[in-house]
Amino acid sequence: MSETLKSRKILNDPVYGFITIPSELIFTIIDHPYFQRLRRIKQLGLTDYVYPGALHTRFHHALGAMHLMSITLDNLRNKGNEISDAEYEAALIAILLHDIGHGPFSHALEFSLLKNIPHESLSLLIIDELNKQLNGQLDLALRIFKNHYERKFFHQLVSSQLDIDRLDYLQRDCFFTGVSEGTIGADRIIKMMAIKDDQLVVEEKGLYSIENFLSARRLMYWQVYLHKTTVAAEKMLINLISRAKDLTQEGVEIKATDEFLHFLKNDFTLDDFKSSDVLIKTFLELDDYDIWGGIKFWKKDKDYILRSISNMFLSRNLFKINLNSEEFSQEELENLWKKTQQKLQVPTEDMKYFFSNGTISNNAYVAKERIHILTKKGEIIDVAQAADLPNIKAMSKIVKKHYACHAKNLTL
Question: What gap in Å lies between CA 180 and CA 263, rounded to an integer?
Answer without folding.
Answer: 39
